[in-house]
Write a structure and sequence with these properties.
Blueprint (H helix, E strand, L loop, with lengths): L8 H7 L6 E4 L3 E5 L9 E5 L11 H21 L4 E5 L15 E6 L16 H11 L4
Antiparallel strand pairs: 1-2, 2-3, 3-5, 4-5
The structure holds adenosine monophosphate and zinc ion.
GO molecular function, one term: catalytic activity
Protein name: HIT family protein
Pfam families: HIT (PF01230)
């Protein structure tokens, strides 16, 4: 995979060909504001090198994004007065991914903000849970 995909929106943002509001950057990553913020201060951390998703990204770039994401999490707590923060990644269209250049959402959370868990936590069937675990361990 080439370092840059000419058809990729976030590659264009990294290259400065499309405007963005950058908060921080380093050798491997750029952190910029999301144009459709879920809450005040919502930002995205991306690797400079193109990779479609978490399955494709170079592990060293993934580590760099994790480091930059934690720095951004600290910033939103300390500078925006957030009460908490969600780090979110979507992999695949069925998992809500819409831009296919890996990105970590850093979403500041405020005590009374409107965001809610996208699932209703409820006890699962123990056999079904164990069955999934067995498949994940590679049994049968
Ligand atoms: P996802 O749905 O996880 O792939 O997230 C893609 C995110 O990129 C969404 O939250 C969009 O609001 C955001 N986004 C799309 N275009 C831009 C842009 N030009 N600048 C900043 N954020 C963008
Ligand atoms: Zn890209």
């Amino acid at each position: 995979m080439a370092a840059t995909d000419p058809d990729c929106l976030f590659c264009k943002i990294v290259a400065g060909e499309i405007p963005s509001t950058v908060v921080a950057s380093d050798e491997q990553t750029v952190t910029f504001m999301d144009i459709n913020p879920a809450t005040r201060g919502h930002a995205l951390v991306v690797p400079r090198t193109h990779a479609a998703d978490v399955l494709a990204i170079d592990p060293d770039d993934l580590a760099a994004v994790a480091r930059a994401g934690r720095q951004q999490a600290r910033r939103v707590m300390e500078r925006l007065g957030a009460d908490g923060v969600n780090l979110l990644n979507s992999c695949g269209a069925d998992a809500w991914q819409t831009v296919f250049h890996f990105h970590l959402h850093v979403i500041p959370r405020y005590r009374d903000d409107p965001l809610r868990l996208p699932w209703d936590p409820a006890p699962g069937d123990p056999e079904e849970i164990a069955g999934a675990a067995g498949q994940l361990r590679g049994e049968a």
